[in-house]
Design goal:
By secondary structure, the protein is α+β, with helices and mostly antiparallel strands. Helix content is 24%, strand content 32%. InterPro entries: RutC-like_sf, YjgF/YER057c/UK114, YoaB-like.
Length: 119
């Protein structure tokens, strides 16, 4: 049986779940939702990087990223931030699409999966 660790959970979700050698992150949105999509993306990626590090992983160990945008008009601006953040030569599998967000001021939500370092 695999041990499972639930990180920063409440009754509805965990910010991350570590199962075996894999770290599964919940969808993350920006703290400042009044910001433009570039700033929201930068904030979300910072939160993801910090949480991965806390869990014993890192952005260099990402295996999959799913990006939801409120508008595909934000695709280029989001990609400019994302492309600068990704470790060269270690780009994870990725999907990106437009969805109706839970709140109208959320421009981007990102979900990620990574493996543990040294695991």
């Amino acid at each position: 049986m695999t041990d499972i660790a639930y990180v920063d959970q409440n009754t509805r979700r965990s910010r991350a779940v570590i199962a075996g050698n894999t770290v599964y992150l919940a969808g993350h949105t920006a703290d400042d939702r009044s910001a433009n999509v570039s700033e929201q993306t930068r904030n979300v990626l910072g939160k993801i990087e910090a949480l991965l590090n806390e869990c014993g992983s890192g952005k260099d160990h990402l295996v999959s990223v799913t990006i939801w945008l409120a508008s595909m008009d934000d695709f280029a601006a989001m990609n400019a931030v994302y492309d600068a953040w990704i470790v060269p030569g270690r780009a994870p599998a990725r999907a990106c699409g437009k969805v109706e967000m839970a709140l109208p001021d959320i421009r981007v939500e990102i979900i990620a999966t990574a493996v543990l370092k040294g695991g």
